[in-house]
UniProtKB/TrEMBL annotation:
Residues 47-133 form the Metallo-beta-lactamase domain. CDD domains: metallo-hydrolase-like_MBL-fold. Keywords: Hydrolase, Metal-binding, Zinc. PANTHER family: METALLO-BETA-LACTAMASE DOMAIN-CONTAINING PROTEIN (PTHR42978:SF5), QUORUM-QUENCHING LACTONASE YTNP-RELATED-RELATED (PTHR42978). Pfam families: Lactamase_B. This is Metallo-beta-lactamase domain-containing protein. It comes from Penicillium salamii. InterPro entries: MBL_superfamily_lactonases, Metallo-B-lactamas, RibonucZ/Hydroxyglut_hydro. Belongs to the metallo-beta-lactamase superfamily. The keyword Hydrolase applies. One of its GO terms (molecular function) is hydrolase activity. The keyword Phosphoprotein does not apply.
Length: 355
């Protein structure tokens, strides 16, 4: 058997994963704020959800990876509100994640930890709705950069009320564990769930890798904002645009004009067929070189057919996959990876002349 492109340490334990629609929708976010080069017909990003993931371990511990936008987002720190005012982005939120959990009789005090992929407003939610027994789990450099929070530090993007009275746990990746080429932290110590060091987009950016089945092993890779669109990670030198896209696309959702038009568009944009349609825009507060390196490492996971890479704002999941309260562990059997992998191409209809 060939060595995997993205090796993961062996393990016999799994976690249950449930994908939560946080009800966050972000509209009219300028494309050039996140990605380059410009794309005809895409002055703004497609309307973006913000996924949360409920991770349930055999021990009974429950974790949340990301919380979306808080319902009371106007009470975010002045630093964040000033940024949002400048962007003029449309923000819609119907429920906080804790309210969604309650619909399945999961209480706030049953959540042992909240993992922030990073500190941006569309991921942090409202941890103050959880009791002090719920840890807040963050990536390297978070404490030195952001603590104390607002108002103790007037310019901090983080609110002190989200941190007060709870354990703020900053992950240390020095133990040497790796998933693929990423430093990783075996959260439960049994190989069922890893936090992944995915730097670049923001200080302390964390991905997560959940083992969803064994014999054979399958995984869900929660990518956070390491990329913001399927065209920001695909295609790659490990995975080309399929010659027969219709074999992977739900025809009713996405009548496919054929791979050739997309390949022509890609060549015009990047000069090759083994590069993504977009690269990250050099945003304030990010490390561009690290962001690119992180995407390149994640492409190795994305190309493995036993790993389903899900970025935080991927709209292709809507209407295609089972969401909370249903589990996502059977994603491979249900072919969700194949159905969502190239769905982003529909955003390019105008660019290829079919709209």
């Amino acid at each position: 058997m060939a060595n995997p492109l993205f090796p993961v340490p062996k393990g016999t334990e799994t976690v249950n994963v449930r994908i939560i629609d946080t009800t966050t929708r972000l509209g009219k976010l300028p494309l050039d704020f996140l990605m380059e080069p410009a794309m005809k017909g895409m002055q703004c990003m497609p309307d973006m959800p913000s996924w949360s993931f409920l991770i349930e371990h055999a021990s009974g511990q429950k974790l949340l990876y990301d919380l979306g936008v808080p319902k009371a987002w106007r009470s975010l720190s002045p630093f964040i509100l000033q940024i949002l005012e400048g962007l003029a982005t449309e923000i819609s939120v119907e429920n906080d994640v804790i309210d969604i959990l309650k619909q399945d009789k999961i209480k706030a005090d049953q959540i042992s930890g909240i993992i922030w992929s990073h500190w941006h407003f569309d991921h942090v939610g409202d941890p103050s709705l959880f009791p002090p027994s719920t840890d807040l789990i963050v990536g390297p450099g978070f404490k030195d950069t952001f603590c104390p929070g607002y108002p103790a530090s007037p310019d901090s993007p983080i609110r002190e009320c989200d941190l007060a009275g709870r354990n703020l746990r900053e992950i240390d990746f020095s133990e040497g564990t790796k998933t693929g080429r990423f430093p990783a932290f075996d959260f439960f110590g049994d190989g069922s769930f890893y936090l992944v060091d995915t730097p670049g987009h923001a200080v302390g950016h964390l991905g997560a890798l959940a083992r969803t089945t064994t014999n054979p092993d399958t995984f869900i890779f929660m990518g956070g904002d390491l990329c913001h669109h399927g065209g920001g990670i695909r295609p790659s030198k490990h995975m080309s645009i399929p010659s027969d896209l219709s074999a992977t696309m739900p025809a009713a959702l996405f009548p496919c004009p054929g791979a050739e038009k997309y390949e022509k568009l890609l060549l015009e944009r990047s000069g090759g067929l083994d590069r993504p349609f977009f690269h990250p825009a050099p945003m304030v507060g990010t490390d561009f070189a690290e962001t690119v390196k992180t995407i390149e490492k994640a492409q190795e996971a994305d190309a493995e057919n036993n790993i389903w890479f899900v970025s935080a704002h991927d709209p292709s999941l809507l209407g295609l996959v089972n969401l909370f309260p249903l589990k996502a562990n059977d994603w491979k059997e249900r072919k969700w990876r194949e159905q969502t992998l190239w769905a982003f191409l529909r955003d390019f209809d105008e660019a290829i002349g079919v709209k």
